[in-house]
Design a protein that fits this description.
Layout (H helix, E strand, L loop, with lengths): L4 E6 L3 H10 L29 E7 L3 H9 L8 H5 L6 E4 L6 H10 L3 E5 L6 H14 L3 E4 L6 H11 L6 E9 L18 H16 L4 E9 L9 E8 L4 E7 L9 E5 L2 E5 L6 E6 L10 E3 L2 E3 L10 E4 L10 H12 L7 H20 L3 E2 L3
Parallel strand pairs: 1-2, 1-3, 3-4, 4-5, 6-9
Antiparallel strand pairs: 6-10, 7-8, 7-16, 8-9, 10-11, 11-12, 12-15, 13-14
The structure holds nicotinamide-adenine-dinucleotide.
Nicotinamide-adenine-dinucleotide (NAD) binds next to α1.
Amino acid sequence: MKYPLRIAVLGCGGMGSGHVLAITGKEEERPDFLSYNVYTDGQIAISSLKGKLELAGVYDIDDKRMQWVAENGWHCYKDYADMLADPDLDIVLIATPNNLHREEAISALRAGKHVLCEKPVMMNSQELEEVMAVARETGLVFYPRQNRRWDYDYLVAKKIFDEGLLGKVFNVESRVMGSRGIPGDWRKEKAKGGGMMLDWGVHLLDRLVQMIPGKISSVYCKCSYVTGEECDDGFKAFLNFANGITAEVEVGTCQFIDHPNWYMAGLEGTARIDNFAGDGKMVRVTKWHEDNIVPIQAGEGLTKTMAPRDAESTEVIALPPVVVDRNGLYINLVDVITQGAEPLVTAEEAMRVLKLMEKLFEADEKNMVLPFET
Ligand SMILES: NC(=O)c1ccc[n+]([C@@H]2O[C@H](COP(=O)([O-])OP(=O)(O)OC[C@H]3O[C@@H](n4cnc5c(N)ncnc54)[C@H](O)[C@@H]3O)[C@@H](O)[C@H]2O)c1
């Protein structure tokens, strides 16, 4: 297999332009049609894609975006058919609105191209079944871009969980909060795959089920529509795992004070990760039974149960640092295609999360706790 693999970006909006800059190693630049830098300094990848992955070109229906591509000297495909007809193209990277992914992915696979597809890979599990069938038939790779498995805060949470730093974990909470409602683009439209469950839920749920092993046994969910849009502008999901661990996942877009990104409780301690940068702390118990518990005045009453522990029975510990390679997903994709390496994200995993989101919508609609034995 020849190196570097050649990848083309379909849809050059907020995310597609980020892919173009990452693949060409120009992460510090800003597309002129955006008012913000796509990457901040902290997100610049630590590994290089040079020699592994090369940008073959870009196509977007928007002329302004194609003008930016042309001005930077990158190849402009005339349309999607022109991209698929490129004999030197190995991978199509789909970064268009969610309702277009199915057809685009099937066309790419049928044209003999591997596919890297933005999340949520499809609108629903039925669409993904169809795409997976074509991938199996053609023997090509369909790789879901669940890039937030490489987020710093998630990897810290996962390290705490995996290494048992809190003893036996019994509850995990994962949240993201904003205060501007749903963005004003296609994310507001149901037919285009809008709503916060598909936009952010897909990330948070994907990471959570990666971290907590085993099956989920039942779920409950409440979607919110507080900003008055047709799509969910947030949700609270409750997951019971067969191993006894409970989890809460929440996305909010009308929250002016944040909850922490992560709150994890174990029998020997608690961890709080405040934000994406991974600020926060762990408190671990050093002595479960205290000698003399003094009640505190709490509101209109006294309590021992809720009284803070004395400093000698706990210790405050810094969160464990982790090393993140933001290019890890692209590199794994290249290794999967060229060397048959194990994919770090699979279509089967994306399928489980799509089915989970479908079950959460159903639980919301029926206002019931529902079994989900997957
Ligand atoms: N993984 C992540 O962290 C992440 C972050 C943001 C967005 N996304 C995903 O990326 C995809 C795009 O989101 P976005 O925020 O970049 O949206 P966006 O609206 O900024 O960009 C979409 C682009 O697709 C173009 N487009 C629309 N129809 C097209 C067509 N038929 N052919 C070619 N181009 C077409 C639009 O002109 C636009 O430039 C979505 O699936 C979204 O969920 C992923």
